[in-house]
Amino acid sequence: MAAAPAAAGSGAGRGRRAAATVAAWGGWGGRPRPVNILLQLRQGQLTGRGLVRAVQFTETFLTERDKQSKWSGIPQLLLKLYATSHLHSDFVECQNILKDISPLLSMEAMAFVTEERKLTQETTYPNTYIFDLFGGVDLLVEILMRPTVSLRGQKLKISDDMSKDCLSILYNTCVCTEGVTKRLAEKNDFVIFLFTLMTSKKTFLQTATLIEDILGVKKEMIRLDEVPNLSSLVSNFDQQQLANFCRILAVTISEMDTGNDDKHTLLAKNAQQKKSLSLGPSAAEINQAALLSIPGFVERLCKLATRKVSESTGTASFLQELEEWYTWLDNALVLDALMRVANEESEHSQGASEENGLPHSSARTQLPQSMKIMHEIMYKLEVLYVLCVLLMGRQRNQVHRMIAEFKLIPGLNNLFDKLIWRKHSASALVLHGHNQNCDCSPDITLKIQFLRLLQSFSDHHENKYLLLNNQELNELSAISLKANIPEVEAVLNTDRSLVCDGKRGLLTRLLQVMKKEPAESSFRFWQARAVESFLRGTTSYADQMFLLKRGLLEHILYCIVDSECKSRDVLQSYFDLLGELMKFNVDAFKRFNKYINTDAKFQVFLKQINSSLVDSNMLVRCVTLSLDRFENQVDMKVAEVLSECRLLAYISQVPTQMSFLFRLINIIHVQTLTQENVSCLNTSLVILMLARRKERLPLYLRLLQRMEHSKKYPGFLLNNFHNLLRFWQQHYLHKDKDSTCLENSSCISFSYWKETVSILLNPDRQSPSALVSYIEEPYMDIDRDFAEE
């Protein structure tokens, strides 16, 4: 029987199909020649010509070849699927065929994901590959999108169960067969259409997971404002669906990944910015705005992020979702781990058995607490990420206001001990192929995402005081009163009804766990960054003293000196935090001197500083600025610190400053400047600005010239510095650049920064403060093009 579909129609169409079949058989001679049909199908798939679908073959031919090639009957099933999926079909038989195809692919996909690939090794070509080659993927896309086609003025409908089967098969094929996901990503109308399938609870999880995978490989970011009725769609999600939808949002609101942000050169970033300005808002920015326009969206995210485990979804609906996950490979490994946890807990009580991968009825009646916790952790991961991205976007102030209003911070404070920083149990969730200390474990990822959120929330924003409770805010006021300095205006303006409650605020809780963190912990970097962000901005004596009273300085010095920390990232975060904590603070320098009380300890500290100036230069800058301020103060307490503190004495020496200055300029070049190392350029400028204040700028430039000559490379350093300063002007004098960060970090007006750079770049070789005056004519190389090679 020739199973040509009704849609195959015209005589011309039949003729083309017959010709293709003859070509595949190598003529009508009866037995097929050993022609590689799969190769021809693959070629057709790439070119869109020739053999591309099962419908181009007769059933007799496919059955005969299947005996030799062991295709599991997939081409024949696809032939039947074509015949039963035409516009006039009721799709009943179509769904039955899908149910025959589905297990042939799902077992293979499960084996593929779990790396148990024995099934895929038994045949030369996996079932998913055969399914795709014979046109299965394109056919399922057509079937799914049939409801978008009008027939006699009426929209066609297919059942949720059938949609679910199509989605499951598509996902399994994407998992196992290279290139399928990318091909689907190129079908923009299909990707947009998939969002409409999320209106049904039955197909939601399958649709969301497929969309997430497709968007992960899509070259161009999708625009959410193109999704039909987006606001209505999202507003109708229950909290469980919204949490899962955040997995998709994570891809749609983050700027396209072009590499590590800190490692990207500023030249490339500036070029991209200029290009973006001419193109208007990016897709990610448009998507963020689209989400923020949905009524109640941020409020619902805050509720999800802060709800307690006891408030989460009931047992019945949770188990229903787990059953969905079990058939959905992206989460199958998670489910396996959850089941392992459940079984371990159940064995301590009445034992457990498994039915279809889920606990038996005895376990269903009492869901293990650890499963509830892990379920909630995995939800919160996605939600916190979305909130964090929104906090760093263009609408930052709007998001800040809403997050404060909906009490995200006090809510997270209440969850800190029991969920966010809970103690690991023996049966904590560990994903397949990972261990308990792996950064991929949900427990650890939640902690890191939480710390990133705190960092974004606190950074240069007055809402940072919501991290404290009422008692701690009163303590800040008392510190200011005792020091006879004005209270910080942001503290006075803080809405006390929105701050943390309980005995400790979130910042204090973070300090407590930070001091207990093991030396090798991956959290140290993120903890230090989160606390440092609280101190960033205009230096606040009260903020510094609040943290000093809690032993933060001693903890940092212990980690740098006594534990001799080796991680460059952790060291950089600790040096940055130490600089913010000590800047202009006499009490901090006294505490430093008390802890670093021997020459041996001081030498270890200096060794850590000098081992990488890229990591430690912010501390060098803060100490240099503090020294300059202390030297201009008439105060017995300050005079005592100046005479006793090893660190201040060390920095005050001109040879020390020149050594730092020489190395800071030498380790950076315009082509290698990044967000991470541009601080070296600004620290070198701080040293020279302070020298200019003391009318010693010519001296410092003359000493740099001598150091060049001593290295036998006259001009190499000053030429480089000249190019760096030219770039500085282009970078920081651009109208969209915020200069307040430079002012706040140095307490030097931005106008003085600009003047100093202009003086250094003065082309007059007679000027004693111009760089060109110290570069001999034969070695002059100051007009180099900045364009990256």
From TrEMBL:
This protein's UniProt keywords: Receptor
GO CC term (a single one): Cul4A-RING E3 ubiquitin ligase complex
Recorded superkingdom: Eukaryota
One Pfam family hit: DUF3689
GO biological process: ubiquitin-dependent protein catabolic process
GO molecular function, one term: phosphatase binding
Full protein name: Transient receptor potential cation channel subfamily C member 4 associated protein
